[in-house]
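Researcher: I'd like a candidate sequence for this fold, 452 residues long. If you have to choose between options at a position, lean toward the conservative one.
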């Protein structure tokens, strides 16, 4: 039996009136807002700074960590201890045996040294109330985000709304391979950010139907419609599969508490009626047909839905282990497998070393030995989250379980070499840990030592 009050996941009692706590909370909120609107700055408002803005959350992460460590809020635990050790070894092997470029090494090492520790800072600083505020803000943002997505879908790539990073007039959409339509990025630099935004949004949408928690009915309804409309308009199979996973997690929760079935069905029925009505409008028919065309074509090419699911969520991970024989023992160096690092190195050495699959990137950069340790850290944290979240279902605390439906996938196999994916992984894991810590504190105060 795993104890939620273990040394692996630490919660420090904090005073809300502490100025450092208030400052850190503001920093975390800024991290969240920059995660969503960083692309907008790079495309529309500050295109001449599109390069530096890619790393705009890095100095903020450093600032948050310094304040947290200085005030005793972030302390070493099992995960952080191993992470620092592996990162130091990775930097050393990169400079000695790898590509040897210091700038790219620092860029690659920031993933585990700067951003990964934020999971524990957020978990220690935020409480359930803060997490629910994040959820409500996501629901409100989703309304204009959905409108923007629809406009981008139907607008030419030359339109201002589809401007690419750095003000690229060629457009920021990604060719969806369906009837000539491009995949809209929303306020993000790339479609990946938009799909992850809606993936995280759906967790809160489902929770607020299960427990309204003071959120307006029409906001819930609009966010629900937006979350499901995002699937055809984004032309994203990843979002489709992520939605299925979250719905399965949600139905499991409902099955544990049949008394909540009526109110859940009421919300689902209302949203379904609206979606059916919308699907008969030409503005929605086109993206649905385009999505189905891409879905069926891609699945046929990749060997069917089952093959796609296995390859995307299981096969790619295990094939990475099988392909690790191609990686050297010490790896080729931190940062070389990322898109930015690969492009920078190609200017000097030629060739593109960008590795799309996450586990393959880790093995390619860090080598077999350190690679297995890094992956093991992420798997161990995901397993801890799963164990604690599952126990809380039986105490009618469903928010961690629903957040886990999104967080678990991006925590284990998300493309952390891409800044936006890294941001969503860190932030979703952080707010999940915050809720788990809050519930653990409540159990302690009620006289229970841990979750049995």
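Model: Candidate sequence:
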């Amino acid at each position: 039996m795993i104890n939620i009050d273990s040394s692996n996941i630490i919660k420090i009692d904090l005073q809300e009136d502490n100025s450092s706590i208030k400052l850190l909370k503001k920093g975390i909120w800024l991290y969240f807002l920059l995660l969503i609107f960083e692309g907008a700055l790079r495309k529309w408002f500050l295109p001449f700074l599109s390069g530096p803005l890619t790393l705009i959350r890095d100095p903020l992460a450093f600032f948050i960590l310094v304040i947290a460590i200085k005030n005793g809020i972030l302390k070493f635990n099992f995960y952080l201890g191993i992470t620092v050790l592996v990162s130091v070894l990775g930097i050393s092997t990169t400079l000695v045996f790898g590509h040897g470029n210091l700038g790219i090494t620092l860029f690659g090492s920031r993933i585990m040294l700067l951003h990964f520790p934020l999971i524990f800072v957020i978990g220690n600083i935020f409480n359930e109330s803060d997490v629910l505020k994040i959820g409500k803000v996501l629901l409100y943002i989703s309304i204009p985000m959905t409108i923007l997505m629809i406009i981008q879908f139907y607008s030419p790539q030359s339109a201002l709304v589809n401007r690419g990073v750095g003000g690229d007039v060629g457009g920021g959409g990604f060719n969806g391979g369906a009837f000539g339509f491009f995949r809209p990025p929303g306020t993000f630099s790339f479609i990946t950010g938009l799909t992850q935004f809606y993936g995280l949004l759906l967790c809160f949408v489902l929770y607020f139907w299960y427990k309204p928690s003071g959120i307006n009915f029409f906001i819930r309804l609009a966010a629900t419609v937006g979350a499901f409309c995002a699937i055809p308009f984004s032309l994203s199979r990843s979002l489709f599969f992520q939605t299925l996973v979250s719905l399965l997690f949600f139905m499991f929760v409902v099955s544990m508490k049949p008394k909540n079935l009526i109110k859940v069905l009421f919300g689902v029925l209302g949203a379904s009626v609206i979606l059916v009505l919308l699907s008969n409008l030409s503005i929605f028919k086109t993206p649905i047909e385009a999505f189905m065309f891409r879905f069926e074509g891609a699945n046929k090419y990749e060997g069917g839905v089952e093959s796609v699911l296995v390859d995307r969520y299981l096969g790619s991970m295990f094939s990475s282990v099988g392909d690790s024989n191609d990686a050297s023992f010490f790896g080729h160096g931190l940062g070389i497998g990322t898109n930015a690092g690969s492009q920078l190195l190609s200017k000097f050495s030629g060739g593109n070393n960008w590795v799309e699959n996450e586990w393959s990137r880790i093995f390619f950069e860090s080598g077999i030995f350190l690679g297995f340790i890094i992956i093991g850290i992420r798997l161990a944290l995901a397993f801890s989250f799963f164990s604690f979240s599952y126990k809380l279902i039986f105490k009618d605390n469903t928010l961690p379980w629903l957040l886990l439906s999104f967080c678990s996938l991006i925590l284990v196999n998300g493309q952390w070499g891409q800044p936006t994916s890294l941001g969503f992984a860190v932030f979703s894991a952080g707010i999940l840990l915050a809720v788990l810590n809050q519930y653990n504190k409540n159990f302690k105060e009620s006289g229970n030592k841990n979750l049995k």
